[in-house]
């Protein structure tokens, strides 16, 4: 088995995330151990800036070291009304890389049903049944998972995914025992309503939640500060970094980059300048 070592960049953005990284590594190992293994879903929850995107990047890194195929997509707040936007991001690149005849042979009877939703076929004269399209998309993933094993699917900001994608996601989550793939979704705790919320909650209920991401502790912030700007950073300066960022990992990393760029001395007497840096764009 290939040993996975954290990179310097990963250690900065994933400070105090050992439990989550261990769960991710185990899930990837399980997927890679047996081609016929059941699929699984991991759910990463956290407010903005707590490291969801960084965690997905670490999953990609671990999976690629293991030799996995990794496909990813991301929800967008302004694109929620675009049907199948996120599922197209996820699957379309693999399908358009095939010759049209190959894609048709590969999807079989589902080609004319799921193909238009994925943007690889023209819509038919009759509007497809939504449930049939959903089933076709699930079947497409199942077939692609056999072709591309070990396959890891990553969806960031899934709370902003379109409703059609979320309906597909709920259906896929229920049938992952038939699909040898690892699916990982990252979401904020709120921001979804109506049918979209119902579909996302159904998908999440079928998965395994990672520990909800929380802000960095003062101790972790001090460790990250000293690892970034130097071991000579004094305790008062480190506490000030934690105070002005509220332990938000993204904001902490951004602020420490500004400290480095400005060559600010990490001592208590420079606290006012630190706060000014934090307010700067």
Can you characterise this structure?
The chain has helices at residues 8-13, 18-33, 52-65, 85-96, 100-107, 111-118, 130-148, 163-174, 194-205, 218-229, 235-245, 249-262, 271-279, and strands at residues 40-45, 69-74, 151-156, 181-187, 208-209. Helix 11 runs parallel beside helix 13. It starts with 7 loop residues before the first helix and ends with a helix. It is elongated and about 70 Å long. By secondary structure, it is of the alpha/beta class. It has a five-stranded parallel beta sheet with strand order 2-3-4-1-5, sandwiched between helices.
Give the overall shape: elongated
Rg, please? 22 Å
Strand share of the residues?
A: 5-15%
Count every beta strand, where a strand is a DSSP E run of 2 or more residues.
5
Q: Which structural class is indicated by helix and strand composition? A: alpha/beta
Sheet with the most strands? Answer: 5 strands, parallel
Quaternary structure type: single chain
Task: Output the number of helix runs.
Answer: 13
Low-confidence stretches: 1-10
Q: Let me know the average pLDDT.
A: 91
| Alpha-carbon distance between the two ends | 45 Å
- The proportion of residues forming helix, as a percent range, comes to 40-55%
Strand order of the largest sheet: 2-3-4-1-5
């Amino acid at each position: 088995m290939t040993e996975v070592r954290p990179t310097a960049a990963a250690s900065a953005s994933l400070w105090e995330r050992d439990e989550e990284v261990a769960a991710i590594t185990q899930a990837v190992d399980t997927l890679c151990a047996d081609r016929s293994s059941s699929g699984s879903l991991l759910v990463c929850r956290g407010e903005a800036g707590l490291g969801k995107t960084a965690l997905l990047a670490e999953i990609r890194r671990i999976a690629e070291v293991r030799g996995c195929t990794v496909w990813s997509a991301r929800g967008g707040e302004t694109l929620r009304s675009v049907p199948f936007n996120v599922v197209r991001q996820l699957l379309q690149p693999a399908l358009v890389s095939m010759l049209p005849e190959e894609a048709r042979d590969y999807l079989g009877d589902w080609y004319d049903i799921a193909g238009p939703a994925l943007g690889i076929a023209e819509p038919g004269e009759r509007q497809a049944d939504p449930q049939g399209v959903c089933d076709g998309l699930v079947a497409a993933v199942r077939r692609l998972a056999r072709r591309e094993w070990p396959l890891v699917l990553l969806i960031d900001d899934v709370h902003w995914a379109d409703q059609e994608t979320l309906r597909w996601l709920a259906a896929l989550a229920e049938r992952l025992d038939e699909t040898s793939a690892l699916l990982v979704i990252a979401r904020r705790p709120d921001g979804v309503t109506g049918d979209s919320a119902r579909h996302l909650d159904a998908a999440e209920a079928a998965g395994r939640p990672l520990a909800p991401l929380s802000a960095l502790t003062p101790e972790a912030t001090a460790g990250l500060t000293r690892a970034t700007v130097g071991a000579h950073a004094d305790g008062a300066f480190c506490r000030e970094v934690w105070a002005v960022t509220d332990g938000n990992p993204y904001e902490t990393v951004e602020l420490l980059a500004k400290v480095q760029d400005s060559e600010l001395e990490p001592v208590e007497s420079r606290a006012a300048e630190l706060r000014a840096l934090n307010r700067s764009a």
